[in-house]
């Protein structure tokens, strides 16, 4: 923003009084304070201080804020700060916020490299084939061993048609010679073609492929993670990383890493245009941290980064399942030590997955159940394709407690072979839908407990992924036990919190645990919700999937309840999950309205105030990242990290225009007193 002349008489007089008229007086003495280098005036500056105050002006010197106040009504704030060379910048009434903190970001994965990227757009199977073929026709897109397509929307679209009945058939049309994989937009769901399925190796290292037969033998433990067609064969859909390892695709989770290494500056394109000055790399891969090192070496790193190092405890286990925590934590300490003297980067966090995901797959036969750890068994809905809506609907439920299901489970667990087609004709559902499951923890509970206890004792702060209510409860138990055993107070973070038991709400504040939400997901999304709610609540009543008294709607993303109980809320995008854009203002809109895209709100009682939403992105997240002593609010003595916006979020909310918050644009991003992004440049 250009320098402005002295616009107001009051300000002119104040500055004149602060500037000595002759050179002798202008010479600073040892006791004089150096003048501010920049004075921002005529703004609406939300300080995010303890009083949640707004100010009109702030002064900077070097990388610090040295004065905040109101020029006309509080001139003494700036006494002695204004000198002949102080640059005056007129904010023109614009809203200024502290620099945003994304407390759950995967910045390397979100880097905008050239790729075949579906961008989470719901597509029919035919449209997926057309997109893939068009993308692969472009230069350099089909040279790798695998054909990889990113940000596939696993929960919406994927409708079958005359050409393709399953995603496997569709991807076979993309290539019958090379393996093809769709990387789901959530990082937990995938889809592959027949070539990829045929690559599956069993524990003996033999290539036997995924099939109906091997899912009963070689891969029986993986069967719940493999989608099936109506003949019982894999339909191409896979859930979680276990199956990827079997088909030799585990390295594809870092698809495009060399392109990212070649253009490390793209990381700043993820953060700075969105006003993000600090972030938690929520699952930092030790093998890709050289991207940070390259940015630093090029003097091109403009952020305050905190690395939540991801180590799979299972990778440190011996043949008996005992985890070598000493070796794991030794590896983590080496990286922590490496960055101790690196400005603006630390590696003081550890990432842990308590459970998986809560989406099932209604388009599989039988429907694949959610695997997030839940407090009760998932329901077994009976789905039917609805030609009118071109989506599935629930027509009933399997009574898993019935005598029929009891005998069916017994038969399936024995050596008896069931005639699946005849069973379905007679009973109206697949015999596998008699199965009972309440999901799984990502690791045995004792490993979760021990890892958190040992990591906490080593001074690390955990960032724990927990989605199902039993996953959340387990994470709370682990933190509670670790702090009681170690006598520590590391203020750990639990993230996602898609479903939380009412009995666990108070435990966040009691244990000083930060509750991390991606608010853009706490909204109605009819196609997505059909992959979740029918497995938790009966939806065959008059209110359909949005039964207000249902367990999911009552306990889904309970942000306001956790806040009202005294805990601290923080916000994170989880980008590139769902989208590579961290979209902070979409998240803020959803936080205050529980709605985006003009849909009705999801459980409006869990909406939070604009102040709470902004604080979740600023001072609260700064506390969670243990840097609130230097950033997170606009106060004297703190670093000059702030952003200038084109809209006043507070006024939008006050005037009933919350749906416009998501359109907000960042005009400027400042880090340490330097303008590191300007929209007009």
Automatic annotation (TrEMBL):
This protein's record includes keyword Zinc: no
Entries under InterPro entries matching the protein: Amidohydro_3, Metal-dep_hydrolase_composite, Metal_Hydrolase
SUPFAM superfamilies to which the protein is assigned, alphabetical: Composite domain of metallo-dependent hydrolases (SSF51338), Metallo-dependent hydrolases (SSF51556)
Keyword Signal: yes
Swiss-Prot/TrEMBL keywords: Signal
Leader sequence residues: 1-21
PANTHER family in alphabetical order: IMIDAZOLONEPROPIONASE, PROTEIN LONG AFTER FAR-RED 3
Protein's name according to its UniProt entry: Amidohydrolase family protein
